[in-house]
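Hello Y.,

Per our agreement to keep a running log of every chain we model this quarter, I'm adding this entry. I've kept the format consistent with earlier entries: sequence first, then predicted structure.
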Amino acid sequence: MEERTGMVTFKGAPLTLLGPRIKVGDPAPDFSALANDLSPVALSDYEGKVVILSSVPSLDTPVCDSQTRRFNEEAAALSDDIVILTVSMDLPFAQKRWCAAAGIDKVQTISDHRDASFGRAYGLLVKELRLLARAVIVVDKAGDIVYAQIVDEIGKAPDYAPAIAAAKKLL
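Predicted structure for the entry above:
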């Protein structure tokens, strides 16, 4: 598996990402993760939709919490043809509890804890922590990546406006 260093840090310390570097124009890799009810979820389940993939290390941290809440707020004003998936290594049960407590009803949280299929496919699995790097990826209806931001410091929030604009432009 490809290893890349120097792309992201945690509190200033460099980390190693596992998997290929994704780029705008690439076909979005399919992956297998778990929904909060333990049912399988794959990117291919959303064929024909615009998908915003919001990758976070853990919903139980302040930046991940606010990132998911922000996308939930944004989702309320978006078309039903846009799906927002927040992917983390949190267990599905923890995600379900967190969503209920936070009032998350527009964003679907999915867990990559079992196989790290998403993290490995998108090059976002942090080797040292076995968590996902913070990133936002927009996939068009044809399944191609049209926007990608890997946040350079895991503790920083992503740029929301460009991701939302990229998704809206696809409708």
